C-alpha cells in the first residue's frame, strides 16, 4: 500500500484494493496442523460467543441454520465442538473466525499506509436452487466446506467476516455459477455495499449486471478476463456504454429507497421462456415488465426501470416492454399519457431531452410501452411496428380514469 501511495496519491486512479484472493482452505474443512488443532481444542473465544448470542436476530439465515447446537445451550462454553457440535460447518466457522482476524490485521496495516477502500472477494459455495449451471457440484465449487474454500466469506459465515474484519469496507462475491440475483441479495446483508469483482464475461453475464445496479444498488461490476476480448465484440461495451450515459440518473435513483428495478431476459431455450415478468408497485400503479413482443422469435433483453415519482417512469435498456395498471379500486382504465424516447443532453447532471415522441405503433395502441432490440425479428410481418432501439432510453407517463362517485 505504501508503494501504491507513492505512485498514485497525486493522481488517485486507484479507487479500491482487494485484500487476498478467495481466502479459504480447499481439500478439507479445517486446518489439521498441530497449532490449528491446539486452537480448535481450546475454548471458543468469548468475543465470538458474545457476538453470535447478542446479534442472533440479525445473523444471516444461512449462518443461523448451522448453529442449532449452539442455540440449544443457555451459556455455551467449551471447545469448538462442545459449543457448536461436530460438523464441517463448525470447522468452517473456526476457519472463518481466524481468517477474518488475520485479513483484518493485513487490511488495518494497509489502511494505515494508504487509506483506500478495501475489500476481499469470495469463492461462493452453491448447492440446490442457488446454482445457475449444469456442472457437477464439486466442479463448480461445491456445497461442503473444502469443496469451496472453507472459511472464506460465504453466506454461512459472512456475519463473522463483517464483525471480525472491520477494516474491510465490504465482502464481495465472485459470481460465476451461483444464481445472480441470489448472490446480490446475500451480499447486501447488513446493508453493506455490493461490488462484484469477478463474474462471467459473456453476454449471459453482461445482461445480469442490470439486476446488480437496478435492484441491489451495486457500486461496481467487473467481468473476469475482460482484457481477453476485443472491445468491438465485447458484450460489455454496449451494456457499460448505456450505463455510463445514464450514470448520474442511476446514482440518483440508488439514493431513493426502492426507486428502481433491474432485470434481464435470456434467449429462449427450445421455445420456452424461463424468465418471469417483473412486477412492481409504484405511485399507485402496478408496473409489469416483460419480454418485448415481436412477430417472429422473441429476443433477449436487459435494463432497468426507474420510478421518477407519481405516474412517471424512466425506461432504460432493450428487449422489454412495460404494462401499467392503476391500483385504485375505482379505476376503470389505465393508459399512457406520454411515451417519449430520450437522449442524454448533460451527462454530469443527468439531464435528458426528448428525441422523438412514440405513439400507437410503439405501444400497441396503449397496451404496453415497447423497448425493442436493435434488430427485432418481424417474422415476415410486412409492417414495422416493432421499431428498432435507438437511444434505449424512454420516459413513460401513465394516467388512470376513475369511476365517478355517486351524487
Automatic annotation (TrEMBL):
Q: Which InterPro entries match?
A: DUF5597, GH
Query: Out of the domains of life, which is the source?
Result: Eukaryota
Q: What species does this protein belong to? A: Penicillium salamii
SUPFAM superfamilies from the entry? Answer: (Trans)glycosidases
Give the taxonomic lineage as stored in the record: Eukaryota, Fungi, Dikarya, Ascomycota, Pezizomycotina
Write down what this protein is called: DUF5597 domain-containing protein
Pfam families for the chain: DUF5597
Domain DUF5597 positions: 236-369
Amino acid at each position: 500500500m505504501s508503494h501504491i501511495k507513492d505512485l498514485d496519491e497525486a493522481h488517485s486512479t486507484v479507487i479500491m484494493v482487494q485484500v487476498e484472493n478467495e481466502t479459504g482452505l480447499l481439500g478439507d474443512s479445517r486446518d489439521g496442523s498441530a497449532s490449528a488443532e491446539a486452537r480448535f481444542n481450546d475454548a471458543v473465544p468469548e468475543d465470538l460467543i458474545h457476538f453470535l448470542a447478542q446479534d442472533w436476530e440479525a445473523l444471516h439465515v444461512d449462518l443461523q441454520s448451522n448453529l442449532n447446537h449452539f442455540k440449544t445451550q443457555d451459556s455455551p462454553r467449551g471447545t469448538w465442538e462442545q459449543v457448536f457440535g461436530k460438523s464441517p460447518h463448525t470447522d468452517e466457522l473456526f476457519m472463518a473466525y481466524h481468517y477474518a482476524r488475520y485479513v483484518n490485521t493485513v487490511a488495518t496495516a494497509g489502511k494505515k499506509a494508504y487509506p483506500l477502500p478495501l475489500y476481499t472477494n469470495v469463492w461462493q459455495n452453491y448447492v440446490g436452487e442457488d446454482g445457475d449451471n449444469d456442472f457437477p457440484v464439486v466442479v463448480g465449487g461445491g456445497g461442503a466446506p473444502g469443496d469451496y474454500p472453507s472459511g472464506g466469506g460465504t453466506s454461512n459465515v459472512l456475519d463473522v467476516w463483517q464483525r471480525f474484519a472491520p477494516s474491510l469496507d465490504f465482502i464481495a462475491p465472485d459470481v460465476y455459477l451461483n444464481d445472480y440475483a441470489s448472490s446480490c441479495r446475500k451480499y447486501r446483508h447488513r446493508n453493506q455495499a455490493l461490488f462484484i469483482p469477478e463474474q462471467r464475461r459473456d453476454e449471459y453475464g453482461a445482461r445480469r449486471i442490470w439486476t446488480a445496479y437496478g435492484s441491489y444498488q451495486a457500486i461496481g461490476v467487473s467481468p473476469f478476463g475482460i482484457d481477453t476480448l476485443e472491445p468491438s465484440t465485447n458484450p460489455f461495451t454496449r451494456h457499460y456504454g448505456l450505463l455510463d450515459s445514464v450514470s448520474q440518473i442511476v446514482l440518483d435513483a440508488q439514493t431513493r429507497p426502492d426507486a428502481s428495478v433491474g432485470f434481464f431476459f435470456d434467449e429462449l431455450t427450445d421455445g420456452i421462456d424461463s424468465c418471469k415478468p417483473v412486477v412492481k408497485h409504484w405511485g399507485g400503479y402496478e408496473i409489469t415488465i416483460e419480454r418485448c413482443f415481436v412477430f417472429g422469435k422473441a429476443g433477449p433483453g436487459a435494463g432497468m426501470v426507474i420510478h421518477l415519482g407519481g405516474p412517471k417512469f424512466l425506461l432504460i435498456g432493450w428487449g422489454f416492454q412495460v404494462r401499467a395498471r392503476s391500483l385504485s379500486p375505482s379505476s376503470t382504465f389505465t393508459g399512457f399519457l406520454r411515451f417519449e424516447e430520450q437522449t442524454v443532453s448533460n451527462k454530469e447532471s443527468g439531464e435528458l431531452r426528448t428525441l422523438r415522441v412514440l405513439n400507437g405503433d410503439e405501444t400497441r395502441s396503449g397496451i404496453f410501452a415497447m423497448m425493442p432490440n436493435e434488430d427485432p425479428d418481424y417474422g415476415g410481418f410486412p409492417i414495422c411496428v416493432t421499431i428498432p432501439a435507438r437511444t434505449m432510453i424512454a420516459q413513460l407517463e401513465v394516467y388512470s380514469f376513475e369511476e365517478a362517485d355517486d351524487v
